Amino acid sequence: MTKRKVYQDWEYWAKPVFGFGDPAARLLLVGLAPGAHGSNRTGQMFTGDASGDFLYPALYRAGFANRPKTAARGDGLELRDVFISAICRCVPPQNKPTSEEMRNCLPWLAAEMACLPNLRGIVALGRVAFEGVLALPAFSGVNKKELTFRHGAFYNLGDDLPWLLCSYHPSQQNTQTGRLNAEMFDSIWQQARELLERGT
Fold first, then answer.
1. Phi and psi angles of residue 31, each rounded to the nearest 5 degrees, phi first
2. pLDDT tens for residues 32-64?
3. Is the Cβ–Cβ distance between 38 and 48 less than 8 Å?
4. Of 156, 184, 152, which Cα lies nearest the Cα of 166?
5. Beta-bridge partners for 79
């Protein structure tokens, strides 16, 4: 991959991006990896690209964010009751992380989860995020053969584990083809909100 000409003077290339959000969050959102010219450039997950442009309005509508748009760190965005992270910390080649890369990055996600004392649920954006979450040590005792990824799938994994809710990833590949639309995405965040309010 090469830098876009418009960003040639930016010193962001190939730097890792870490999770961010409300430290008291009950909800963890897990994506795939930083976008090459999005969060890799801004330093904030799901910021600066089309995926974030689709995600943050949905979080705002569900009450998880104080504003529907964000362009960079420090622009006034505040997340409420949600922490945003990803399986991989750096931009993967061809946007397809290798198994080794995912294994190397998962300890960072596990460490972030350990810093969320109120965690009740996880929303996995895409199949890779779903499989990555289930590969975490915390889920080692879960019978994964009974779990399959599909949009809207919900799994209550036991009293000692956060529940898991699945959504298609808000990538342009999904949103521009109609595989994921705003109504479908809103239903995920509304369900997450209802689960949290019920104390599930």
1. -105, -165
2. 877 766 666 677 888 878 899 999 999 999 999
3. yes
4. 152
5. 65
